[in-house]
Every structure is written in structure tokens, then in C-alpha cells.
Amino acid sequence: MDEPWQVALEASAREKLPPAVYRYFADGAGQGITTAEAHEAWSRTRFAPHVLRDVREIELSTTLLGMTYRAPVGLAPTSLQRLAHPDGELAMARAAAATRTLLCVSSNAGTRFEEIGDTGASWWLQLYVPDDRTLVEPLLEDAVRAGASAVVVTVDAAGTRVRADAVEPLDEVSARYRVNHADPAAPGAAGHAFDLGVHDLDRVARLTGLPVVVKGVLRPDDARRCADAGVAAVWVSNHGGRQLDRSVATADVFGSVAQEVGDAVELYVDGGIRGGLDLVAAVARGADTAFVGRLALFALAVGGEAGVVELLDRLRDELQDSLRRAGCVSPADARGLVPADAPPAG
Fold first, then answer.
1. For the residues 318-327, what does the mean pLDDT come to?
2. Catalytic residue among 85, 181, 192, 239
3. C-alpha span between 331 and 287 (Å, rounded)
4. Is 39 a catalytic residue?
């Protein structure tokens, strides 16, 4: 039996990347328990497919914060993309533009925001809030000027994550790649805020005039606080297992978050999304879109822009095929695929 294409892609990336860079991309925090469980949690979802339906035409387009994209799959924010491929975020952005895919850009990107904007990609800025809030003001101004259409505030990274010894040397490289900061070392030196609150979300909205998305929510009560604060969307994420090890898998909690706030805000998810069936599982449980992170980094490492385009095309084709086999004509039509009396994914 052939290797799953995802396994082959990661193996190819591992061969091309320096060992420390591969470990930085692939590893999780602690013992890596949360990272290891991510995909398996989605694979536990079971469907009740429709029959006797006309599925000759499948419509995959999806609207997020008022903009339409080719399919409900986006590119998650990831750092050090220029260590995966010399073109880094520029290649990722060109692939996003070519496939009409939403791109979320790390605030620690190694490519200038204006260069990303010039590709024609539709993109959002991912933001870490530092202790000194004033440090992000020029960053936000630059992002708005370069065409960012939303700000994704990451809320599950209080303080600075303690990394494995094997990737500590990359910290200095990371600082050099923060080209969108006036002082590249400043945000890292300040550290992520320990006192992050809903007032920060309002401040980002006021500074930018853009919709605010909250990334890193795993609990229904926290999702409700965000919705009540007026955010545009809640992004269920455990940071790829790279913050608190033994955090729950996103697949195991997404349903409860959707039940709490699904009518009030848009809902996104990441963590272990590796193929079309995972995308179906996400939209069936109420996600407006799902994001891929590590897969996109591996595709970038292996094939640059063309590799990311190939990945996005493959995910789209798998999603279309899976929906057709489930008797659904769109992602929204998949909302009934998980029976009401089915247990949570976990």
C-alpha cells in the first residue's frame, strides 16, 4: 500500500530541511502529547451520509468576514517561513493569490507586509500582544496600509514559550527575520503580555478599524466572553500543541464552542487538519473554515509556491470528493452529517 501523501510530504520536507529547522516546525511543547493527538481526534468523527441526492455540482466557495474564497480552507500563520524556502511568505502569498485562499500572516514574518500585499493575496495579520502595548502600533499601521483586512489576536501565548534545547539557536534567527518591526528585537524582548484581556481586543479594533478574530480559544465560556466583547470571529486552536502540552484536541471541543457562540460570530479551527475528510468533519461540526499550518510549511519547503498551490488544490479536490460521497452539495450542506445524538469527536 502506498504511503499517505501527507506522510510522504513531511518525509520529503524532513530530508530538505536542516534538522533544527524541521524540529522547530514539527515538534510540540513538552512531550508532544497534544501535537500527536491532533489528527487522530478528527479521525474519530463519524458521518451519517445522505443518499438519493443530485451531487453532480459541488459549490465549495465560502465567505469569511465579507470576502469570498475558493474553499473553506486557509493558510494559518507560521513563523520562519524563509527557513523553509528562500521566498518564504512571498511564495505562500503568491500561492494564496493563485488559489483564492485566505492567508494569515505572522507578525514575525520575514517578508515586508507591502510585498505580501502586492501579490494580490487576501490576508489577515496575526498579532501577539506584548507587555508594552505601544510596540504594536507601528506594526498595525503598516499592516493596515499594506492591505490586511482583519487582525487575528493570538491569546494562548501568555509569556514566552519555553522551547526545546534543540531549537534555541533559532531564536536569534527569528529576531533577524522580524522585518516588520521598527526594532526587530523589541517585541521579543518585551515578551508576550501576561495581563491580556478583552480590553486589548477593543483597542486593536479601534487602532485598525478592522474586524478582530480571537485565536487560541478552547472553552465555550471563553468563546462567549470574546463574542460578548464584539469580536468578529473565534478561532478554536491549541497553537499546534506548541504552548501547553496536554491541552485538549481542537476536534474534541469545537462542537461545544460552536453550540455556545455559533450564531453570534464566525467560527474557525485548526490543529490536525490533514485532508478532505478532516475538512468535512470541521464544517460538519460548524466551522466556517479550517486552517492548515504544518502541512503548508512542509509543502513550502518541498516545492515553494508551486508546492503550496499543489497542496491547496489537493485539499480542495479531496473536500469536493468527500462531500460528494457524503451526499452534500456544499460545506454548509454538511452541517447535518454528524448525527445529533452522536458523541463528541473525543
1. 98
2. 239
3. 9
4. no
